[in-house]
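Field notebook, page 238. I keep forgetting to write these up properly, so this time I am using the form the group agreed on. The chain and the ligand, zinc ion, are recorded exactly as supplied. Prediction of the bound pose follows.
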Amino acid sequence: MSEKIYSTDSYARSMSASVMDTDREDRRVLLDRTVFYPGGGGQPHDVGALWVGDDELEVVRVTADKQGVWHWLEGDLPPAGTEVRGEIDWDNRYSLMRTHTAMHALCGVVWDRFQSPVTGGNMTPGEGRLDFDLPDWDASHKFPMEEELNAHLNKALEVQVAFLPREEADADPSLIRTKVSLLPPDLREVRVIDIVGLDRQADGGTHVHRTDEVGAVQIVKVESKGKGFRRIRLALAD
Ligand SMILES: [Zn+2]
């Protein structure tokens, strides 16, 4: 199993690691430790590069399975036992961290006002969308909600990461903000992201340390997608 450095230190950009396995068919390597986020929870996987000595191998995709975190490569595949250095595309990742944190803040604001669960979501660097079961919506809510969201972000709220035993997480249904729990049944420990005082939820992604790192956010659009289904699109101002 790979050590998931991104899970406890989202600001780590580089690492040294050993290749544990090489899959020649899919052109990917399994590493013993990594800063590369494999994607999930609406956040795309990282991109970047591995180095074997002076040889640079582009990381074009990252995935995770029971064995650990796989790095899909362009170029010659290093065999098991090779020592490598890895570095993520930090501008891309940091923008995703800010976007992801903004989306949690939006979850918190929508939850406070409507107690609406999330039914889906996705993001690219700088832009995100969240789907809500939100029957009580009308257009007059948009600007006040945007103001409230920015006021919270401005307060420089701390964003904490904690790991709870599964039983404790299951006993607190408010941790699952999605309409259906996406936690795998065999998961023993649940990672929780707490924007202190605003939003607390089970989550595997990477976030910033304090909400003022997000900067100003715009609610670009609220779309009606049928019976109570609203899609809220947000964007970072810079
Ligand atoms: Zn999230």
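OBSERVATIONS:
- Residues 90-114 form the longest helix (25 residues).
- Residues 41, 100, 104, 203, 205 surround zinc ion (CB under 6 Å).
FOLLOW-UP: compare against the apo run.
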